[in-house]
Amino acid sequence: MSLRKKIPTPRLIPTFSVILGLVILVYALASFPTSAQAAPSFSAPRQEDKPNNDFCLACHQEEGLDKTLGKESLPVTINPTEFGNSVHSKEGLLCVDCHTDISDYPHPDVKVKNVRDFTLSFTETCKECHEDQYLKTHDSVHQKALDEGNKEAAVCMDCHNPHTQTRLTGQTSGELTPAARLHIPETCAKCHDDIYAFYKESVHGNALTEEGNTDVPTCIDCHGVHNIQSPTTVTFRNSTPFLCAKCHTDSSIMDKYGISTNVLDSYVADFHGTTVKLFEEQFPDQPTNKPVCTDCHGVHDISKPDNPDTGIALRENLLVKCQRCHPDATANFPDAWMSHYTPSPENFPIVYAVNLFYKFFIPAVLGGMIFYVLTDIYRRILNRIKGVKHS
Amino acid sequence: MSPKNTNLRASARQEKTFARFTLGQRWEHAVLILSTFTLLLTGLPQKYREMSWSQDLLSTPERLELIHQIHHIAAIILAVEALYHLGRAIYLISRRKLSAAMFPNMQDIRDAWHMLQYLFFLRKDKPIFGKYNFEQKVTYWFLFFNFAIMGISGFIIWFPVTFTLFLPGGVVPASKMAHSTESVVAAIFILVWHFYHVHFERLNLSIFTGRLNEKEMLEFHGREYQRVAGQPTVDQNE
Fold first, then answer.
1. Nearest to A116 by CA among A77, A70, A83
2. DSSP character for B159?
3. Which of A277, A336, A343 minimises the CB distance to B172?
4. H or E element: which one contains B95?
5. Cβ pair A350:B161 closer than 8 A
6. Which of B55, B120, B177 comes nearest A355 by C-beta?
7. Which residues of chain A have pLDDT under 70?
8. Is B67 on the interface with A (CB under 8 A)?
9. B130: left (phi over 0), alpha (psi -120 to 50) or beta
10. Cis (ω within 30 of 0) for the bond into A51?
11. ipTM of this model?
12. Distance between CA atoms of A220 and A227, rounded to whole angstroms?
């Protein structure tokens, strides 16, 4: 009994497949008379009404394939290997999930007359799966530029090529992987190459591009991702110290490099930071002429403070920064800023001495006076109770 | 009007008073009150800008700017007053037109020691004071040095570029720290020491009226009373 059951099964499967394959082949031959030889073997479509990816790739893997849009030509070759490595392929998406207008050959006419418009026509498509990110982009500077008529403003596909984009976040963590972080600046550099040139030379960019160190901030750590805000607004400027402080007060990052995490506190305690903090908290959209981190340290070109050429630990380099707001400042002036130091006998001894003086003076002298007055009150009350006339 | 009232008025008229402060000194004190109070009122919110009461006051950048300007104007008024006071005192004392009674002397130390003994029940009598007792001299000299510190440090942090032309940069943050801390010292001192002695211990309005009556004079400035009356002074230490 068991033998009779087992024997016909292996025979049936190939037979069934051959029949099915033939049916599809006939169908394909009928639909694709010109490229029939390019689609010799493929399995059954996943869903009956949608052609599978191999079906599309059968033609689209051909090198040099392009589509004429008006006066421009759009390359439509898809590298099967690259596509196969993409997150969309790995997650089992079908070409026609995004290319919803195509289900057959010949494809329907493309109405747009240039390549950019063709790309832009797909933005809504990403929303189908990535609604959160899609909605965020609507608050971004890129969307704003797009709305103002700048068609070059970045849309989803400019940063994430849907045919080659690999997975960026950890499968379980949902966090951006270090490997993904490594390539972020290159993505932004596709348009912002001038900024990338500065970034690459900066202490952060250099560590990322030369050492592969992903502790450093990439573009998105300061500018955000998807809902990227304009960095030229007053609000952005007033919040700069707190932006930098996100990493620079985090000892789990800073300790490795021996960098102080006291930079925000010392900034807020000193002249400029006191005001900036007040503005940030009380009136974030009002401009202040007090410097924020980037005014002295630089923006994309931040260098190490002890860099011999540009480092602001060197007084003559700092003086140049001071003079931008205090044009008459002279050589002594940079020391008016305590450079994030906590006063100590080594650093800013005068300030340390003043502080030390009051630590003793206040309890000793004012405390003594309070004690004296209290004793006087006590003696008076006692005199009154006893009925003794004072003095 | 009852005869009793008439008697009272008559006795009030006959009450002997003693000149204590000149009109000029009383005006100086009025300027001090106004400028110091303004400086504390506009300075402390800047020091304590973390606090909600301060942030209610510094609610817009314009308010912050206004408060800065009021502080600066009050600072100039106080600085001018301090220089006037100092210049005038030096001039008058050098011409022997003003007594040097405000300067501390050995008698003050003896009086302070005596007072402490009294407060700790080691003596039954209180010291007999001269024109300015040691408590009043402490008030004067404490605030004298306080204004000096506040004034110098205040102008350094107001004009850091100018002062670092000839001073090391470190004096600027040092001044900021001194200015900020000394302001609280001043506020506590005025509240605890000065207000206690002129409001709570007894209401002493002589800085406004310019005069002390005989009773006050006898009770609080016995030595001065004796001097004015031409009586021999009592040595309490014997």
1. A70
2. S
3. A336
4. none
5. no
6. B177
7. 1-48, 388-391
8. no
9. beta
10. no
11. 0.84
12. 10
The residues pairing with A104 across neighbouring beta strands, listed in sequence order, are none
Of B228, B55, B76, the C-alpha closest to B158 is B76
Per DSSP, B33 falls in state: H
Is residue B172 a contact partner of residue B156, using CB atoms and an 8 Å limit?
A: yes
Q: What is the pLDDT of residues B43-67, one digit of tens each?
A: 999 888 888 888 888 888 898 899 9
From the candidates A351, A361, A380, A382, which should be mutated to test the interface with B, based on the most B CB atoms within 10 A? A351
Candidates A288, A336, A390; nearest CB to B160: A336
Beta bridge partners of A66: A75
Please, what is the average pLDDT of chain B? 87
Residue B87 at interface with chain A, using a CB cutoff of 8 Å: no
Q: Does the pLDDT at position B221 exceed 50?
A: yes
Q: Is B55 near chain A, with CB under 8 Å?
A: yes
Ordered by where they begin, the domains of chain B are: 17-229 (1.20.950.20)
Domain range summary for chain A, segments of one domain joined by +: 348-391
Would you say how long chain B is, in residues? 238
What are the structure tokens assigned to A170, written together? 């950890």
Structure confidence at residue A312 (pLDDT): 87
B49 in Cβ contact with B58 (< 8 Å):
yes
Can you give the pTM of this predicted structure? 0.78
